[in-house]
Amino acid sequence: MTESDLSQPPTRDLCGTMLVHRRLLNESTTYRSRRAVIENRALQYERGRRSPARTDVVTIPVVVHVVHNPAVPAQNIGDDQVHSQIAVLNRDFRAANPDLDKVPEVWRPLVADARIEFRLAALDPEGEPTDGIVRVPTGRTSFGFDDAVKSSASGGSDPWPTDEYLNVWVCQLGGGLLGYAQFPGGPPQTDGVVILHSAFGTTGTAAPPFDGGRTATHEIGHWLDLYHIWGDDDGACSSDDKVADTPNQADANTGSPVFPHVSCGNGPHGDMFVNYMDYTDDAAMFMFTRGQSKRMDACLEGARASFLVASGALTAPSPSAPSPSAPSPSAAGGPVRDGTAPGGITQQAAMPGPSHWPAPAAAPGVTGTAGTTGATAADAATVPAQPGPDGHGGPGGHAGPDGEVGRLLRDSERLAAEVLKEIRTVIDMVGGGDRPGG
Ligand code: ARG
Ligand code: ZN
Ligand code: CA
Predict the structure, then answer these.
(1) In-domain check, residue 281
(2) Is 195 helix (H, G, I), strand (E, B) or coil?
(3) Domain of residue 31, residue span
(4) Residue 79 has what pLDDT?
(5) How far is CA 16 from CA 194, 232, 352, 413, in A?
(6) Gene3D superfamilies per the record (predicted)?
(7) Direct distance between the N- and C-terminal alpha carbons of the chain, in angstroms, rounded to an integer
(8) How does DSSP classify residue 247?
């Protein structure tokens, strides 16, 4: 993708996230291979070959970078607006949002509690106390999806280590862009989500119809590896979101559709436009599905496994947290630094190996994170760490008999081949003729 492409405002049905995804697929062999490994793992979860080991709630430490132009004081949003956004996330990812009752009857059984909570960081990368909000003045009047906001060298704010914190940049975005995210597997120095300040939280500068905090819910869905439910195929019905329980749908829905809206022969219930991964107004999206939750689990137990450990020490219980039925492990058990996740999951060490990313242009705050947004050592192996529900051990069990392992191995290789084929298709679609090694 060229510079001039980057300066074009995105069309409404191709959000910044997919443009960044396609740019990275085009530019980086590392991203392509990491995406293949991540898709392979997600497919194993999706097809029941592998099951989420996690049952407890995971708490993600968040740092919010408020990048603002002093000439426009409104851009320097207040702490209360930031807190209002964290509160929305803690409802939406726990299926504790009060508008859940607007989900059409037929999809209620699919509503998922993703068991993910968010807390503003209580400790900064140096271990000093923080409120988790960084305020950085900029000379720029607005930003695009070229990641300039993520580096102080280009008028933005450098990330905190992206394997320990979810970095959220809040700023003025141009071109009608509400936000964009980086999928797992990308360069650590740009990992995180970017949100337009007036589409962030529920108070302050938040403006209708995007004043429900759902832009962050949607973008963090991408950050946890969710695709748009229509599959980004411009209405072709040929590509989907790789999640079986969201109906195949033609294109993005906008505004506040009336049930049912049928496309791609998905009647009688039609498009699941109430899903956070569609493009409807904030007041018209209410749910993630079980399949999406499982895909987020695949990500949290794979590419983002670093968030399953040690997060307790970086966060403090926040007053804006909901009162979920299950107590947050970090709140209940205190800091966990012993290599065991709160849910009893043994730490999957991130692959330390040499970085294949170009050196960060300017991200001094990022150290030692090179391998962590990509594949884990466990992903690299084709044998699943645990047998799936159709295996003999179940979650937490040990490897099955040889025959079972062999079957899983072959299955895994077949899935990997399928995924590679799909990625090649996407690359061809975006005209990636410069791809080394075909
Ligand atoms: N990346 C999408 C965009 O820029 C975000 C859509 C979020 N939708 C919402 N209702 N907040 O348009
Ligand atoms: Zn999106
Ligand atoms: Ca689907």
Answers:
(1) yes
(2) strand
(3) 3-343+350-430
(4) 98
(5) 10, 12, 30, 32
(6) Collagenase (Catalytic Domain) (3.40.390.10)
(7) 18
(8) P
C-alpha to C-alpha distance for 402 and 364, rounded to whole angstroms: 48
Local structure of residue 150 (DSSP, 8 states) = G
CA-nearest residue for atom 7, ligand 1, is 215
Q: Is 305 in the pocket of ligand 1 (CB under 6 A)?
A: no
| Ligand 1 proximity of 215 Cβ (cutoff 6 Å) | yes
Q: Is the CB of 22 under 6 A from ligand 1?
A: no
At 315 the pLDDT is 81
Report cis status (omega within 30 of 0) of the bond before 322. no
Q: Is 81 exposed, middle or buried (0-12, 13-18, 19+ CB in 10 A)?
A: buried
Q: What is the pLDDT of residue 365?
A: 37
Alpha helix locations (H) across 224-374?
290-300, 329-333
What gap in Å lies between CA 162 and CA 67, rounded to an integer? 18
Neighbours of 86 (CB within 10 A): 22
Ligand 2 centre and the CA of 303: distance in Å?
20
Residue 373 is predicted with a pLDDT of 39
**φ and ψ at residue 29, rounded to 5 degrees:** -65, -35
Number of domains in the chain: 1
CA 213 from centroid of its chain's CA atoms: 15
Q: Which residues contact 175 (CB under 8 A, 6 or more apart)?
A: 8, 9, 10, 144
Residues 6+ apart with CB under 8 A from 323: none
Has residue 249 been placed in a domain? yes
Q: Which residue stretches of the chain have pLDDT < 70?
A: 1-14, 310-313, 317-438
- Ligand 1 binding pocket mutation candidate from 182, 195, 218, 274 (most atoms within 8 A of CB): 218
| 435, part of any domain | no
Query: Dmax over Cα atoms in the chain, in whole Å?
Result: 67
Cα distance between residue 347 and residue 349, in whole Å: 6
DSSP characters over 381-431: SSS-SS--TTSSS-TT-----HHHHHHHHHHHHHHHHHHHHHHHHHHHHTT
Active site residues: 219
Mutate to test the pocket of ligand 1, among 279, 282, 285 (most ligand atoms within 8 A of CB): 279
Q: Which atom of ligand 1 is nearest to the CA of 222?
A: 1
- Residue 295's CATH number: 3.40.390.10
pTM greater than the 0.85 cutoff: no
The reply to whether 176 falls in a domain is yes
pLDDT for 26 equals 96
Among 220, 218, 213, 217, CA closest to 229: 218
